Every structure is written in structure tokens, then in C-alpha cells.
Structures
1.
Amino acid sequence: MITTDRTIQKIEDMASTDFSKLLGNEKIAMGMVSSVPAGIYSKQALKYLNQWNAISSQVIQADNVRTALQYLLSRNVVFAIVYASDAKLFPELKVIGIFDDFTHDPIIYPASLINLGSEEADLFFKYLVEAKTLKVFEEYGFLISARD
């Protein structure tokens, strides 16, 4: 959860936070909860924390995460829920809380080769798993999971 308001305190425990009190009369932007992955995960987390029903009327749904960010950056909303990797791109934003992983489905970006005869695809895949490439992903907030 992010904001542009530097006076808002960091949330130490999302599970004990009263989101309707936090939001007051303000709006919160997130991806569309029926079709945008970030919105789907956001709704799952809020439902897990029993907060969705209390604030759903204050949710401004965007067609993608970058649009939700733009609503926040343009100060049309005071809060937004986006991926940590997107929030890191804008130093003027303040991360006030992070949902625990168990509050929503795992966020996974799988990669695999489907055309084993393609030299270009093979080179690109090898590039993706190089240590220096993985370091860049980590710098932007992605966690690396080694799976076959």
C-alpha cells in the first residue's frame, strides 16, 4: 500500500489495521478486481484481512497498475495498492504497508522454453537466468524462485 502523503505513518501490522479508519473519506486505487492480476491479489488480501466489505465502495479500479499509480501521482486518490516493483519506480511515493504473502495467491511470473529448436529463444532464456540479470530483477523488488 502506497501514498504520496509523507505524514501518514507506516503500518506495522496490516492484519490489525482498520482500513476504513485509515482511509477516512479518501479513495484508494488498485487494478480492476475482476481482471487485473494486481487488483485480484489486492482484493484477496483485503478479504483475507476482513477489510474488503468496509472499503470496497472507496476503491477506484484501474485498467492496469500504472493507471492506478497515475491516479495516486495526480492526487486523485490518497492511497493505492500496487506491486512493490512498481512502487519502487517512483521515489516520491511512500510505502506504508505490505500485505503478507499468505493473504493472497502466489504472484508468479513463470518463464520456460516452448520452442526448443529456437536459438534466439534459448539465448534469451539463458540471459534471463544469468546472475547479473537476476540481480536486476531483485533490485526492482522481484523475489527469485529457482524452479525447473
2.
Amino acid sequence: MTAPCSDRSPSVSEYVFVYGSLRRAAQHPMHRVLKHYAQYVDPACMQGYLYAVADYPGAVASSAPHAKVYGEVYQVLQPDLLFTALDAYEECSAAFAQPHEYSRQQLAVTLATGTRIMAWVYVYNRAVSDFRLIAGGDYLNATQVE
């Protein structure tokens, strides 16, 4: 399920999966916003590939079972407020020109416990052929190595 970023209400799930600058250890100021409107659940992964877009990552969903993107899942407590802020941060709200760099999509993610849930994910929405693949699918590990 793909939602235009201006559609702020998650219909099926009340979870969001983050894999880059919004993760706790990244210590980005926007994590405080996430923490204010959502509650940390567990480490998780999704099927996909992770690319170094600039000084931030972009995840692309994939059906390849070996392709994993690692991150964290949060239970959304105030969806309207959280998704208004995140859509602006990810530049996919109506205030930004099309095509947006990211699209908010509902995808299956697997928690560290093995439980699969549906969560909103900001998926990279442009060509990735010029970007470096982040081996191992973990943005935080990749930034510690570089």
C-alpha cells in the first residue's frame, strides 16, 4: 500500500520503520520528534536494498530474500502530528515538487523477535544507479566504517 505523503493517517498499521537518520543512535534532532509522537518497539529489518544517496540513505524495497535493510520500528501514538512532521522532513508533503525523493509506503517488516508486521516506510523514489549500495543494509554500521 502506498499513501500520498499528504495522507497522514495509517489505515492498517500504527507502526513506522526507520533505517537512517531517524534511528536512535544517529542522534539526529528529528529523532526527538519521532520519540515524542511514537514509542520504540524493537530492532527490525525489511526486504530491500540500501543506498548512500548523499549523507543520508535511501531504501528500495525488493522481493529478494537475501536483501535486507536494518532499522527500528516505532508504534505511532499520534499519527497526524508524526506524519506531518516526517513527511516534511522526508520532503514528500504537498509543499514539495513532484516527483518526491521519498514515498511513504506500507511494507512488511520483521521484528528482532521474528514477528512480521506492516509498517510505514519512507522508500527512496528515484533512480539509484549512481549511488553506492550499502553492503549489509545497515546505515549506522556503514557510517561508522567510513
3.
Amino acid sequence: MAKNNVPAKQTETGFSIVDNPQSAQTIQAAFTEFNLTAADLTRLKIPAGGSIAWEVDTLGETKAEQNLDVIILGVKGNQKAWWATSVDDSAGDNAPSCISTDGINGTGINSLDPTATTGTHKCSECAWNQFESSRSGGRGKDCKDTSIVFFVLGDEALPHVLTVPATSLKVVKKYAMQLLSRHIEPSSVITRLTLEKAMSGGGHTYSKLAMSKTSDLSEEQADKTRGIAKNFMDRITGGDSLAGFASASEG
């Protein structure tokens, strides 16, 4: 008797975005019903002081995790933010004075002159975008360079966002290039995010991002996540969704 050609059942990944057939609709509903922007997503921060544990907020509870296995939906690089007033002197108002979402043009006030007005500025010509401009000393820039990584955790349908500081930008770039050189899209693999303790040239301990691939999704699963990732990134990076995303606590 001939066997029926029944499609093989896909192995569950433990990721809601892959295993739940309603995942795409859930994200779509968040945009449609709640006008979702990048600023509304749950944020993950690289901790200060050399900690090697992530602090993950879920349903009002904060958990410490050594490793985070995620599916990356996209990365938005060339983000810049500058604050005229330090966080300590801002009386709780930590919105940046000037931001750029393309690394080319900044919008806001990029001057310490109290009479300066909001405008558009060339980042390449801005004094605060030059090395050794940091008002806290050292060789760094006073304007903060970051990348934004959008990803999903295993049991959550809506994406999270990680703001990557200048000290870990090379890590993101290297990992992305390793995948792309093998024609692998970030949304088609499971990526592990970990933290390493590092030390700056000035002797300050800080936490540094580490990224590695743990496994591949099947072709069918990858097709699904690629579609979700494209739709999500088209919407989250369109218009003014990224404007004002940065906050002083992530600088």
C-alpha cells in the first residue's frame, strides 16, 4: 500500500513567533490598534559596571539571565544622540537635545548656547561628533553612537529592543558580517546574547555584548520569520517611529 504523502510535522522551536500561527497577526494588531512605535517596545539594556547578567522585565517581574536566546528581526545602525545637559542636571528630563536616525543629519539643538534654536545639522561637521569631544574626559565623542537591535524572546510575540552602545558596536557588525558572508539572514537563526566583562583604556570596567549562533531554523520556519521581520522593520523604521527613541539612561 502506498504511503500517504503527509508533510512532516515541523519541530517546535520554543519561539512563539515561529510556533504560533497567530504571531504575525498579533504584531499587526499592535500596530493597528495601539499605534506601536519603537519607543513603546520593551527595552533591554547592557548593564553598567561589568555585570554579566541581563535584567529582563516580563509581566512586572525582573529576572536575571546569563544567556538570552533570541530571533533577531532587524538592526538599525547609525543612531546618534547628544544631550546639552547631563543626566544629573536634567531634573528628570532625559530627552536628547539632538538626534540622528541615519548618522548623517541630526535634528535638534547641538549647541550649549542657551539662545540656540532647533535645526538640522550635518553630523560630520558637528563638534560633538568628533573624537576627544567628550565633556567627561577621554578620547571618546560627546555624541553617543548606538545601534538598535530588534528581537523576540522565546515565549513572547511582540519584539524587544536592545540599544547597543559604542563599546559593543563592533560586536554587532562582526556577527552580522559573519552571517551575511554565508548568505544567512539574522531572522533565520537563533542567536544567543551574552555579556562579557571588559576594561577600557582608562581602567574602567564595563559590560560588553557577545553574540553567537546556536541553531538554524528550518526553511519553512525561516520563510515565516523573514516575512514577519520585513513587515515589522518596514513599519518600525518608517516615518518618525525612531525619532526621539534614545534616552539618557541608554547613553
